[in-house]
Design brief:
Number of helices: 7
Shape: globular
CATH class of the largest domain: Alpha Beta
Strand content: 15-25%
CATH architecture of the largest domain: 4-Layer Sandwich
Radius of gyration: 18 Å
Distance between the termini: 35 Å
CATH superfamily of the largest domain: Metallo-dependent phosphatases
Structural class: alpha/beta
Helix content: 10-25%
Strand order of the largest sheet: 1-2-7-8-9-10-12-11-13
Order of helices and strands: HEEEHEHEHEEEHHEHEEEEEEE
Largest sheet: 9 strands, mixed
Length: about 325
């Protein structure tokens, strides 16, 4: 496949442009994932359409809060491997907190191996990752952008790991995916992300639109709903009000589904925001008790994963535990917004 790119360097730092271009070229070679660098934002845009193994059918796993290298991560990884062998997987979505407790310190950090490569060594599909609060350092309580850069640059080293930017988008078959950085939303540093994601969602012609990020909009887990995270006051920027605002203004009624992690459990919410549905799959390595009272179609504090298949106008979602049992099945029919 011919790799093409274009860029307006004035929209971004020259070093960032060169780094993005290197990642782009390496992905062209490794995955035939060739496309261009968006002129307005300077963010690489990739064509992953060749990943769909079955025409008109897409199959993937979404799982978050994985990166502990513990027995829980390996148990869920084994369940992922078995499900992929049984039903097929085109790729994996990693929903953040990829490396506990405080991210990585370089692109050569051995934690990439112990908390990503080794647990998933038998799952040979791409992993599309977003950043969680722990990936930014400080045991999840600080914001160190340099730590995020190492995970982005690791894209050029790993055969599986894909994070071309701290937020990005891609399309496979009839579905467009929007990978969000909810950490910069939390800190109100997301003006450009808001502009870019709004444009991407509006311009795509895909039948299905799915957004994924780390922090939830609505949750019965320990952290709770955006705007009320961890019982924080209205004056506390970390209460998630900015994430609530972003979701309601950019995603609600414009994407079919928003998948997140952060809370270490599995939830599918009854509430819909102008038709947009909400799922949480943050039980990738450990779990915590549920305590909220939002109405749900399903919730569990047992470890496991979310498996989704899309076939034309039907999306089928399954929550699966570490023993491979389907705990919950949900069917979505394509809505027209």
């Amino acid at each position: 496949m011919l790799c093409q790119h274009s860029a307006t360097v004035s929209h971004m730092n020259k070093t960032t442009f060169i780094s993005n271009l290197i990642i782009l070229l390496l992905l062209c070679v490794s995955l035939s994932a060739c496309s261009f660098i968006d002129e307005a934002s300077g963010i690489p845009v990739y064509d992953y359409s060749s990943l769909g193994k079955t025409p008109d059918k897409l199959r993937f796993i979404a799982v978050g809060d994985t990166g502990k290298g513990n027995s829980g991560q390996y148990q869920v990884a084994h369940a992922m491997q078995n499900k992929c062998q049984k039903s097929g997987c085109d790729f994996i979505l990693l929903l953040g907190d990829n490396i506990y407790n405080s991210g990585v310190t370089s692109i050569d950090d051995p934690q990439f191996n112990s908390k990503f490569e080794l647990p998933y060594e038998n799952i040979n599909v791409p992993f599309f990752a977003v950043l969680g609060n722990h990936d930014y350092g400080g045991n999840g309580k600080k914001y160190d952008p340099e730590k995020s850069v190492y995970q982005i640059k690791y894209t050029a080293i790993s055969n599986k790991w894909h994070m071309p930017h701290n937020y990005y988008h891609f399309t496979i078959q009839n579905t467009s995916f929007f990978a969000l950085d909810t950490n910069i939303q939390m800190r109100k540093l997301d003006n450009q992300q808001k502009i870019d994601v709004t444009k991407w969602i509006k311009s795509t012609q895909s039948k299905w639109k799915i957004a994924f990020g780390h922090h939830p909009y609505i949750s019965n887990g320990q952290h709770g709903n955006a705007g009320e995270y961890d019982g924080a006051s209205e004056s506390n920027a970390l209460n998630g009000q900015a994430i609530k605002n972003f979701t309601e203004s950019v995603l609600c009624g414009k994407v079919d589904l928003y998948i997140s992690g952060h809370d270490h459990d599995r939830q599918w919410h009854e509430y819909k925001c102008k038709g947009t549905q909400f799922a949480i799959s943050g039980a990738g390595s450990s779990t915590r008790q549920l305590s909220g009272i939002n109405p749900t179609l399903y919730e569990s504090d047992e470890p496991g994963l979310l498996y989704i298949s899309i076939n034309e106008n039907t999306l089928t979602a399954e929550f699966i535990d570490v023993d491979g049992k389907v705990n919950f099945k949900h069917i979505m029919k394509k809505q027209h917004y």
